[in-house]
Amino acid sequence: INIHAGIENTEIIDCVAEVSRKAQSKMDKKFWVFFDEFNTNVNIGLISEIICDRILNGERLPDNILFIAACNPYKTSTKKEVFEQNVGLSKDHLLSSKNKRLLYKVFRLPSTIGELVWDFGPLKPQDEEAYIRAILGTEQYD
User: Fold this and answer.
1) Average pLDDT of the residues in 63-84
2) d(Cα 1, Cα 80) in Å, to the nearest integer?
3) Please, where are the H alpha helices in the chain?
4) Which of 50, 64, 97, 125 is buried most, with the most CB atoms less than 10 Å from its CB?
């Protein structure tokens, strides 16, 4: 699920509910749900509840659904970069806004999910593949 600021909570709920229905009908299969850039959306609490508590709309999610997620780092930019990235807002407004130096907007991780974060730093493609295989265990995936 490609998460961004424009994704509504209903879209997240609908997508996970569909996976849940499929997973319930095929309990012998594993279903992976990947939340990409999940901390760029105001619904981070909902996503955290889905991943950590395995709850959707008060219902327990099937055990054959596995979750993995990627979050963006809290990264700031220089005043010059912010000034040059102006797209429609007045530069005075942009430079005085609360998040004026953020390269992109991210939300603070809830403590329940923050404990599960692995900081891979910048990875080479072969290192990324090795990490993914280690996380997935001994199962073979293509």
Assistant:
1) 74
2) 33
3) 9-25, 44-48, 79-84, 91-96, 111-114, 125-136
4) 50
